[in-house]
Design brief:
Strands 1-2-3-4-5-6-7 form a seven-stranded mixed sheet. It starts with 16 loop residues before the first strand and ends with a helix. The protein contains eight helices and 13 strands. It has helices at residues 54-64, 82-85, 100-120, 199-211, 229-255, 260-275, 281-296, 306-317; strands spanning 17-22, 25-30, 33-40, 45-48, 72-76, 95-99, 139-141, 144-148, 155-160, 170-174, 179-183, 217-220, 225-226. The model has no long low-confidence stretch (mean pLDDT 97). It has a domain at 17-237: 4-Layer Sandwich (Metallo-beta-lactamase, Chain A). Bound molecules: zinc ion. Residues 79, 81, 165, 184, 193 line the site of zinc ion.
Length: 318
């Protein structure tokens, strides 16, 4: 049976839900599509993630404007993936903030990633013709940046916690309210895309450091918001379970001397009962297994191109 490439067959619109997750903190979820958020400062806003196009970003901002009309001073990007960054122009932010590593990755592979993600998930790119070009951070940091919210509102702590979903992911943590925006380092009720990941670092030290934060509300990259301490920890462990079981299944097949197609079938069979019904499962599995395979060979994440995307898809699924 041949499957539609990646998520190209997924064209039904998703319902978007704006939730107030703290005092002056909002998140927009969309049934497994990329989540976004905003944090209110004394006289400005910090937006977390930009969505894939300015049009998609404006739809989010219109909902946010029912709660606050403060200007967006900082647009924080958790990592370089196109569906998270290319809508940046709509925010008219003073600063676009990301890790220095994310800035480097945008220079190295931003254009290829734009092409690839458009091909994989066209539904997320409504209004794509309006994208003005690559999104470049204007303010970067290596490990940690603290933003003062003004008044008595406390701070937002941006941290790079280790290699994970990419080598540049950061999280945004509001200590005064114990709210965490974890980006794609944590998914809650969605399959986990790892095509650019460092699985071994992610499922050990990096997720340990996420789990060590004192969190009562966790907004992951995709899926539901976790509203309690327990739910937050469960979301982290769900992400770890997906990565570990997939990694182990691929490693076992590879060590036995079989080929990558067998590894794909084994990893898919391992995860299907628990994760098969979740968003982007079939899409993610193919690219994930290729990346596990390469990581086991000691390679850095290769740049996905449209050509490589289809070559890997066909080799594993047909
Ligand atoms: Zn991502």
């Amino acid at each position: 049976m041949s499957k539609a490439f990646a998520s190209s067959g997924d064209t039904a619109p998703k319902a978007e839900t704006l939730e107030t997750v703290g005092d002056g903190i909002w998140a927009l979820t969309a049934e497994g599509d990329p989540n976004v958020g905003a944090i209110e400062g004394e006289d400005f806003l910090i937006a977390f993630e930009a969505r894939a196009t300015p049009l998609m970003a404006r739809r989010w901002l219109e909902k946010l404007r029912q709660h606050t009309d403060k200007p967006v001073k900082y647009l924080v990007l958790s990592h370089y993936h196109a569906v998270r960054v290319l809508g940046a122009a709509a925010f008219e932010a003073e600063e676009i903030v990301a890790s220095a590593e994310t800035g480097r990755l945008i220079g190295e592979r931003g254009k290829e990633d734009w092409d690839v993600e458009f091909g994989r998930m066209p539904r997320l790119f409504d209004g794509y013709e309006e994208i003005p070009g690559l999104t470049w951070p204007t303010k970067t940091f290596d490990q940690h940046l603290s933003i003062d919210l003004g008044g008595t509102r406390g701070t937002v702590e941006l941290s790079w916690l280790g290699n994970g979903h990419t080598s540049g992911d950061i999280v945004a943590y509001v200590p005064s309210q114990k709210v965490l925006f974890a980006g794609d380092l944590v998914e809650n009720g969605s399959a986990v895309y790892t095509g650019d990941a460092y699985h071994q670092d992610w499922m050990t030290g990096t997720l340990d450091r996420v789990a060590a934060l004192d969190v009562e509300v966790l907004v992951g990259g995709r899926g539901h918001i976790a509203h309690t301490r327990d739910e937050s920890q469960r979301a982290i462990e769900l992400t770890r379970d997906f990565i570990r079981r997939m990694f182990t299944a691929v490693e076992k097949v590879k060590n036995a001397g079989s080929d990558i197609k067998d590894a794909y079938l084994a990893a898919r069979a391992e995860l299907l009962p628990d994760y098969g019904g979740m968003p982007v499962f079939e899409h993610a599995m193919v690219f994930d297994v290729q990346r596990v395979w390469d990581e086991l060979d000691g390679k850095r994440p290769a740049i996905w191109t449209v050509e490589r995307d289809h070559e890997v898809w066909d080799r594993l699924t047909k």
